[in-house]
Amino acid sequence: MKLNKMLERRCTYCRKILELSPANFTRVKTKGFRGFGYTCKECDKKRVAIIKSKRIPEPGSIRKRYLERRTYLLNYYKEYSKNNQEKIKAKLKARQAIKKGELKKEPCEFCGSIKSEAHHPDYSKPLEVMWVCHKHHMQLHSPNFEELFEPALRKLNLIKNNVV
Predict the structure, then answer these.
(1) Are 92 and 48 within one domain?
(2) Is 27 helix (H, G, I), strand (E, B) or coil?
(3) What's the number of domains the chain is made of?
(4) How much is the pTM?
């Protein structure tokens, strides 16, 4: 059967030749399509159904997951704040001192990076902090930090005083 290009179009999925009309093909705003897409409405519906079945979870499940996650995080933060009052107070006092200008941010004591964080060796002394970059801060909190930092900590006289 010969295709009349002005009045008919072949669906790219089912290969049927159909009349070029809104009843058979989806409207497309892009130029060059003569206002219609290349798939018939039936095939378009099937394709969209397959995509939606793979991608979109059941209605309400996103909200449910969000609420479960939110509840978990709220409980975690409540428990954390109960168990770490001294730590939270020390961090707050250090932050306030930085804002007031009483405590000045310095480069990392190990590598000299200007992006540094305050590390509290002793939470009972909130304004006595070590300035370390994020990488070294994480290493300081690792179980084998003394092996990693022994030369640098000796240099800073922190191992002798058992500060860290």
Answers:
(1) no
(2) strand
(3) 2
(4) 0.49
